[in-house]
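Input sequence (492 aa), recorded before submission:
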Amino acid sequence: MKKFFVLLVSVAVWLTAGADLRLAPLFGNGMVLQQKQQANIWGWAAPNASVTIKASWGAKASAKADSQGRWRTTLATPAATFEQQTVTVCCGRDKAVLTDVLIGEVWFASGQSNMEMPLKGFDSCPTEGSNEAIAESGRFKGKIHFVTVPSMPQAEPTDTVTVKWEDCTPATSRDFCAAAYFFGIKLQQVLNCPVGLINSSLGATRVEGWMPRELLRSYPDVNIDAQIDNLAATIAGMKSRNEDLYDIPRHLPLVFYNGMVHPFVGYNIKGFLWYQGEANVTYQCYDYARRMTDMVREWRSLWGMGDLPFYYVEICPYGWWWAKPELLSCVMREQQLQAQSMLPNMGMVCTNDLVKDYEYGQIHPCMKREVGERLCYWALNQAYGITGISCQYPIYKSMEVKDGKAYVTFSNADEGFDRGSKIEGFEICGPDSVFYPATYVGAGGNRVTVQASQVKQPVAVRYCYKPFQVGNLKSLYGLPVVPFRTDDFPIK
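Predicted structure, token format:
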């Protein structure tokens, strides 16, 4: 019923615009436009028709449709404002009047189920504090608007998809993705301006599913040109059987980019949020850093707005009982950390501490507020220049061995750590490569000293280098140490 209502609303807007004049999906009532930019606006009209645009803040623009009826132009946006604006688009006798328009900061969120997970949570997978957050969400009415993109896999790039901007209320926030929601409310509170959030995510999808065809051709394991007919047949078959496209096989390449990213390419945003990786733990995880940064580079190129910020979430501790070898999830975390240094304006959120002890077998951990807030710390510090906010996580830098002890030095920890006792998660091995739990000896500045009674000659140190191990060592600002190993032993 809900999907049917959204479809009716979208159709009503198009009919108001007229038979020929249509706007691209995100241009509708309640939209949020990125402030202080030449905002791209595009759509369709009769071939060679003239289109004019007027905004309530005084900006004007015009365009002429090409022989296929496509038109595109830019509209200057002012500084952020909570005052509701209107945008009027005219083409001959056809007219679309877009109301409740806000000017502020816009972010595009994507990934798999941990990004898709709504504020109300999934069945047997609650979002911690969800009822309180939902109850309080009405405070952001008129301040935060958001869009949830439906599952819309396509074998070829599509330009249209049915979406609707929602105002933030308890009735709407409960179904919006939790991580992006908590990112948005923290951003709104700190910047005191409207925030627009676009959620285009789908559970169990691989990174390859969010890439365009041209990029996928570079991977020998993805024969994308040979797969196109099969992808089209899969989608067509589901439609003919009236099956919900939400149930499409999630391992497919390409199709989620085509239907859930391509329609929005070029819509002015401030940056990207990404929470994905679990589905690649057992598929090409050793190549994940390259593939994710390839995707980032491609998205940035397609948007044409420079090196847009890209902030993403490390996969949480989880059992991964089916992964062989069992440490593949640790390799994935290494790959995710590596990606941070491969391109500019990248930032990774460490989640090593954001699981409960009982969530060993829960791939959707409940602490999404902290995930969203940590993503926001990256944005506030790096994208908005509020440098007093810490966003960098302690990362292993070097190790020194002396008198049977290992002295481990970290980057991003010059002001020290949050504790000096009962540190958990360290292991040490000697020449036999057998690891034993390590005991904390001391700390000072950016260095921690550990030892193990069974190891007289330390060779390597690991920290939370297991599928599921919750660490408790954090920076002075409460940001956890990123799991690491000092060795390069074969993964078993």
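Checked by second reader. The chain has three domains: 2-103, 106-383, 395-485.
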